[in-house]
Known about the structure:
By secondary structure, the protein is mostly helical. The chain has one domain. The chain is built from 12 helices and 2 strands. A two-stranded parallel sheet has the order 1-2. The termini are far apart.
Amino acid sequence: MTLDAIIFLLLAYLCGSVPVGLLAGKMVKGREFDIREYGSGNIGASNVWRTLGRVCGSVVFLIDVVKGVLPVAAAHLRTDWQHSMPAVAIWMPVFAGLASILGHNFSPFLGFKGGKGVATSLGVAFGMSPTAGAIGLGIWVVLLLVTRYISLASVIAVPSCCVFIWWFNHKQFPYIPFGILASTFAIVRHIANMKRLKNGTEPKVIFPWNNKADDDGSSGDSHATSATG
C-alpha cells in the first residue's frame, strides 16, 4: 500500500471522527454545553434529538451519514489506484468505510471515545451501494416503528444491510470481512442496550401517536426518546 493510500485512509478516519453531536450542542446551547452530560450521554443523533430537539437531531443524523458516504465515494473515484495498485484498489472502499466508522466510534477528539456508529455505517452503506443503503434504512425504519426500540432496530438492520451490500457488489470477497466487522462494531456498541432490553428497562421511542400512559415502565423512563423532540 502506497503512502498516498495510507494518508487517504487517515483522512477517512478523521472525517468519521468529527464529533458532530458535541459540536451541535455547543453551537445551539453555548461553549460550556456538553451533550455527553445529558440523556444517554452519547454524541449520536438520537441523544441529540432527545436533548436538543428533532431539528438539531435530524441535522446531526444527516451529517453523520455524510461522514460515512464521503470517504467511500472518494475511494471509488480514485480510478488511478486501479492502475497503480489493482490488488489493493478493490479493498479501498472497504478500508475507507471501516476507517470512517472507527473514527466515529473512537474519535481522537474525544479521547478515543465516541458514538455507536449507526448513522455513519448507514452512510458507508450508501457509498458502497445506494440500493443496499436504502434497503438497510427501510429495515431500520420498519423495525423502529414496530418495536419502538432504536437499539434493536440498529443491531438487526446493520448486519442485514451488510448482506445486501455484499450482494449488490457482485458478491465480491472484500465485502464479507467488511460485513463481519461492521456488524460486530454495531453489536458491541449496543451491548448495554441489549442488557437493558433483556431486563425490560430499555427506553422506547415515543411517537406522536403513542399514548405514553399505555407504555410500560421502561418507556416512561426519563431517557425515553420522543419523536416530537
